[in-house]
Amino acid sequence: xxxxxxxxxxxxxxxxxxxxxxxxxxxxxxxxxxxxxxxxxxxxxxxxxxxxxxxxxxxxxxxxxxxxxxxxxxxxxxxxxxxxxxxxxxxxxxxxxxxxxxxxxxxxxxxxxxxxxxxxxxxxxxxxxxxxxxxxxxxxxxxxxxxxxxxxxxxxxxxxxxxxxxxxxxxxxxxxxxxxxxxxxxxxxxxxxxxxxxxxxxxxxxxxxxxxxxxxxxxxxxxxxxxxxxxxxxxxxxxxxxxxxxxxxxxxxxxxxxxxxxxxxxxxxxxxxxxxxxxxxxxxxxxxxxxxxxxxxxxxxxxxxxxxxxxxxxxxxxxxxxxxxxxxxxxxxxxxxxxxxxxxxxx
Length: 347
Fold this sequence. Notes:
By secondary structure, the chain is of the alpha/beta class.
C-alpha cells in the first residue's frame, strides 16, 4: 500500500483548531462532531466562493452574458425557499448583488488563471533533520492560482463585513495563506511568489418591509408632534420589491471600499518560520494523542465576541442530549472531498 495513503491528513483548519483550543480539535477531528447549524457568515462566504469558482472556470470562448446568466440561475436554485424563508431571501439578494457587482468591477483581469479550487498534498518535514513526518501529511485546497508577470500567485477570496484599515493591516499576518502557498508550491514543484487578496464587502443594508397600521399611526403621531403645523403628509410604508432592493444594492456596491485587491509577496525567512511552527504543532498533537489530554482554552469560548460552536458541549459537560440535538457526525475533512454542487450551470 502507498505509504502516503496511510498518513493522517492535516489541514489548515485542523491546525488552527488545535492552536486555538485542543478540546475543539478533539471534538471536531477525533470525534468528528460538527454543529447542525452552519454559521451564517461562513455559509454566505462559501456560496460566494462557489460563484467565483464557476466564473473563473468558465469557457473563455463562451459569451460572457450567458455565463453570468447561468451563474445567476445557479444562485436561484441554491435558495429554493427564498419566497417563504427570510434568511434564504436575504442571502439570495446579497449573493446576486455581490456577484453582479464583482463582474462589473472586474470585467477583465491582468493575470491568467492556472488552476481553480486546486487541491494539494505535500510532506511535513522536520526543518532540523530534513526528514518527513511518518504520521502526518499536509493537504488543502486553494481558491485559485494565477500567473502574473511570469510568476505564480494564489488568489484568496474573502468576504468581509467591512473593508477598513484594520482589516487590510491584518492581511500579511494570514497563517493560512502562507501555509497553502508553501505546500501547494511543494506539491506542484513550483515557487509561489505571493498572494492576491480578493476582498468583497458584505452590504449591510436591509430590504424595506411594509408598515402595519399601528406602526404607521405611531410614526405619524411623532411626526405631527414635531411639526409646527400640527399636520403630516406621511404615507404608510409598503414593502420594498425585489427589483427595487436589487437596484439599491447595486448602487451600494458602486460606492468606495466595497472591493479591495492587494498583492503581497513572500520572503524565504517567512517559510522557514512556518516550517518550524508546523513541525512543533505536529509534535504537540502527537503528545496530546498519546496522553489523551485535550485541554480546553477557555479564552477562546467567546473569541471575537462570538460564542464557540462547541460551547454547548463544554457547558453541559458533554450532555448526550445536547450532542444529539445540536450536532452531527461528519468526516474530518469534508472540504477535500467537496466540489462545486452537482446542480451547476453547464458552460
